[in-house]
Amino acid sequence: MMKQTLEQLETPALILDEARMERNIARMREQIRRLGVIFRPHVKTNKCMEVTRRLMETPGGPITVSTLREADYFAAHGVTDILYAVCIAPNKLDHVMALQGKGVQLSLILDSMETARILTERAKTTGRRFDVLIEVDSDGHRSGLAPDAVELVEIGRFLEDAGMTVKGVMTHAGSSYDCTSVAAIRAMAEQERAAIVHAAERLRAAGMACPVVSVGSTPTALFAEQLEGVTEVRAGVFVFFDLVMAGLKVCREEDIVLSVLSTVIGHQREKGWTILDAGWMAMSRDRGTQRQPVDQGYGLVCDLDGRPMDDLILVGANQEHGIMAHRDGRVEGALHLPVGTQVRILPNHACPTAAQYPSYQVLGTDHEITATWQRFSGW
Question: What is the mean pLDDT of residues 100-106?
Fold first, then answer.
């Protein structure tokens, strides 16, 4: 069967530049080697076996997931060492036990005594054992216990007294996405490291082994200067990068792997607009760059070689229509591409944009599509 080219694809389509992806993976691998820790890649962004197998240390993992649907999928492909990095909900424990029954070593996280009681009660009534990490809040971003919280040791002791070993502690420096400089990211990486190591030391001082000390975010993973006391790193969006990461100076625009192939379908010349067939259903509604110095609208418009075009962005988006215009809003001298012209749009946030599609169209050289890689969605 003859391979397609970009120009032959029906749009919108999700394009994956394989050469860029391989460079991004190599960059992270080199950093992980330098830091001397285990790498537990987060696969919530890619949701694809062809991508994930390029990230794992062994065919069995380790990996990090955000949904049990992800755990199901990768377990079906032979991955057995999985961290489910969202605090466990009681209604998911049957699903967890089903995965355990298939030989999956599925680690769970929690950050409250309430959840610890539910988990230990289920363990007692079912005769099951659960591997548990306690989530630590290292930056006030989302969930977790403060490193100095009294509850941290209380929960650990409660779990151990109930016969459930505390496997370790984990944290996510989500506030790194709000940093305004590389220096600030480096400082956040050290804050993340110090917080989680302190939490682990408190548990050990209370008699718990706490063998796993886990950190993770793409910015802090790439810019951490040292990770003394940390055992593993989790990161995921580095595989693809996106405009938010470029705005943080974590990557360059030319490192962004995913783009949405779109076609010009009309114009509103009196407004300086060109209309595309990729709206927010193709790009997602994520406007993460709106809080950054350079607002990229709904995405940065590039030519078919992936080069930004004349400072064009998607300034607006309806469900199936994208509005392409100059960033400065010019009408006079605005570039109006002919109907049928194709462009590639770099996304603000790789995760929600990828989630709009069932597959990646893998881009090789000379605009050739070398493969179609399936991805999945859902919980």
Answer: 97
